[in-house]
Amino acid sequence: xxxxALFFTVFLIFGFLIAEDVKTGEYDFGxxxxxxxxxxxxxxxxxxxxxxxxxxxxAExxxxxxxxxxxNKSLRENHVKPKFFYIQPALGFGTGISGYxxxxxxxxxxxxxxxxxxxxxxxxxxxxxxxxxxLILKDSKEFAIQANxxxxxxxxxxxxxxxxxxxxxxxDLIYGGIYHEEEFQESTFIYMPAWGIGLDFVFTNNIxxxxxxxxxxxxxxxxxxLVGYRF
Length: 231
Fold this sequence. Notes:
Elements: H1 2-19, E1 25-29, E2 32-36, H2 66-80, E3 85-96, E4 99-114, E5 118-132, E6 137-154, E7 160-180, E8 183-203, E9 207-216, E10 220-229
Antiparallel strand pairs: 1-2, 3-4, 3-10, 4-5, 5-6, 6-7, 7-8, 8-9, 9-10
């Protein structure tokens, strides 16, 4: 009978808790102790942190073909090791107010400086010119002796190896005949300042194409075109 009364009392307490909120804690009912805990709402689950974006891996370069490998090897051999000295004979012609004249040239250069972009040479430029001159002389012969400076730029091209910018300055020894109304008067020997500026195109087989302007009679520009070989 005593146990039934205790059970009935606990049943009433739980019914009362359903109807009203009660404080948490321990309650003694004779032989039974009831502990009430505060019900907590479940904590919200944490959202997983986004994974850091991976940088795209660089695309693998295409395998180097045998032809490209040979080309790159040739370019490295030609451009990385500039010549300490070169000599360059050439033959061509000049034209302008001078009319038409045959030109033979001999250039020589010594390496005095080098960078990743260009090489710098200084040397001598010897030019021999022969032709008809209608302005003052006829059957003239010229021998120009000049100091020159050359900026040698390497280029990446399967046919062309270097492009040079050259400048020269010196004096020109001129020998020719003076005519009056188509009659020969006398032979004369004069000298004039000599100068020139232009480009050298150096091909991979060392053939060169020299294009420039020379000073005719010291001050008149004269076009020059020569073909030669660089040793």
